[in-house]
Each structure stands twice: as structure tokens, then as C-alpha cells.
Amino acid sequence: MIKIINKTLLNKIYKEIKKYDDIVIARHIGPDPDAIASEIALRDSIKLTFPKKHVYAVGAGVSKFKTYGNLDHPNYNDLHEPLLIVLDVPNYNRVDGIENLNYKNILKIDHHPKEDIKGIVDWCDEKKSSTCQMVAELILNTKLKLNTKISENLFLGIVSDSERFSLKNTTIETFDTVKKLLEKSKIDFTNLYDILYTRPFSEYKFIAFITNNLIIDENKLGYIKISNQNLKDYNVDTATPSNLINSYNFIDELLVWIFITEDVKNNQYKISIRSRGPIINKIANKYNGGGHKYASGAKLEKMEDVDNLIKDLSEACKDYENNKL
Length: 325
Ligand code: AMP
Fold this sequence. Notes:
Layout: H1 7-19, E1 22-26, H2 33-49, E2 54-57, E3 83-87, E4 105-110, E5 121-124, H3 131-140, H4 148-161, H5 172-185, H6 189-197, H7 201-213, E6 215-216, E7 221-226, H8 228-233, H9 240-244, E8 256-263, E9 268-275, H10 281-286, E10 290-291, E11 295-300, H11 303-324
Parallel strand pairs: 1-2, 1-3, 3-4, 4-5, 7-8
Antiparallel strand pairs: 6-7, 8-9, 9-11, 10-11
Helix pairs in contact: 2-3, 2-4, 3-4, 3-5, 4-5, 4-6
């Protein structure tokens, strides 16, 4: 049975959007396709529906995501009591590009566990595959308009965050939303996969490097420490490991796996963690990180903390296996 969409909540969001002349849409730092696609799709839909409104999708641009559309760089002093819409992020310190913005109110749409951001309308649902699924449901169930480009972006965000409908966050609602998007806009969806999955050969060699160097312990915890030199050798950046980590989702010998990437520019280690069983976001929280039950991240400065995190995750794997017996 498809869960009935909460139309009252969606209409509340629509009415809130309708009230404001100036709207800023933001998402998390270090964006992934779901974050970028959702902010651009929502901006474009609001502009299409209300051509007189000033709507901006903000945050640092990422060159490999430029096919999704351009980001905006408004002068915040020119805005009059704007609405801030926060997408795909639950905590203030990870929202990108809103320093110096004086907003009137915040509205939030997100599929992470709740943290400190509380919107006047706060649509937070951990069961959704992606923020793009939520934005698609909003558009499909209110008077917000859709065009081909908006549909394409939403499709890409859903496919990416659900890892091609294979992760546990994929539900019958996900398929239903995608079906409706395809019916309404007839996008050429198979060709869109190129945008997500075509990569330079050097990146495939980097995948081989990770595969050959991943250490797997007796509790089915896999980990790899990727140095700045490793990144240079394969001509990839600090964001690449987290873009690749979902590809390790179907390996018998792995329950939890963690990529630790040296980020010399910020003098820290970027941590990406995935799980096929144990809940990992509580452990990431302990190290000032966060995320979903089975997909989390953190930033650490000391290798000692990294090693403790590895130990905690390994223990979680052991407990998980023991509880299965
Ligand atoms: P990633 O491995 O970077 O794709 O991140 C996986 C999930 O963890 C995403 O939902 C992120 O929002 C979350 N996440 C990543 N890094 C952090 C962090 N430093 N603090 C809190 N959450 C994070």
C-alpha cells in the first residue's frame, strides 16, 4: 500500500512559499547530487510558478555538478525579509552560504534525523530516500509547476541518494514518485545515468586502489586511510572517496566500511561511513559527525580519534553479528 501523502503539510509549505517575495534556498556544505539537485529544482519550480519572486539557490559551486544548473550569488543586503528554505541538512553549522543572511523565517525539508534547525514548517522524514523525493512530492501535490529540467534534476537526486533504488531508504513511495515524474515530463531517464556514472578512467584506477588497500578486520569492518599523496597520484579530490563509497554496498565480507581521507587544506580527516546492518549515526555523533542510520560522516583532526572511531565501529559490527546468533 502506498502511504497517503500528507497534503495538509505540503499545502502549508506551499502557502508559506507563496507569502514571500524573496526566498533563499540553501543545503549542506560539501554537496552531493541530492543536495544540489533539490535546491536547483525547487528554485526553478518556484520561479516557474511565481515569475515575480526573487529566488536564489546558494552555496559553493562544484564544477562536476554544473550540469544540474547554476547557483546564485545574491547580495543579501538587497533582500527584504526573505524566507530561508533549508534542504537536506538538519544542523546550522553544516548549512552552506548563509553567513550574513538576515532571514525572516526558516522552512526545512530534510530526510536526516532532526538536529538543531527547527523550521516554522519543518518537514523532516527519515524514511524518504532523498530530499529530491520530498521536493518532487511537494511539487506533484501542490500548485508548484514542473518542467523537464526540474524533473531531470529530481530524478538524478533520487537515483543518486538511493544508489539506483538499491539502498534501504528506497520504498514503494519512491517508485510511485518517480513514476509520476516520468509520466508528467517524459524525461529521457536512461541517458541521464551518464551524468551520474560516467567518470574518467583515473577514477576507476582509484577504485582499484581502494579495493586493493581496504583492510577488512575479523568483525567485517573495512577501512582505508587515503593520504593526500594517494589523491594526487590518481588525480582525484577529497570529495571523490565519499562519491564512491556506496559502490562497496554488496560485498559479503563487509558489514561496515569507512573511508578516511586526508584533507590537507582544512587540516583534518574527512570520514565517510556506510553500513549494511549496524546503526552507525549514533557512533558518528560521538565524534561530532552525523548522518543517516546506514550512511554517516564526520570530520576529525586527530588520527587518534580516527583510530578510536574505527575501534567503535568494529565493536558495533561484533555486537551486530553476536545479536544475530
Ligand atoms: P558522505 O559520506 O559525505 O556522503 O555523508 C554521508 C551522510 O553523513 C550524509 O547524510 C551527510 O549529511 C552526513 N555527514 C557527512 N559528514 C558529516 C559531518 N561532518 N557532520 C554531520 N553529518 C555528516
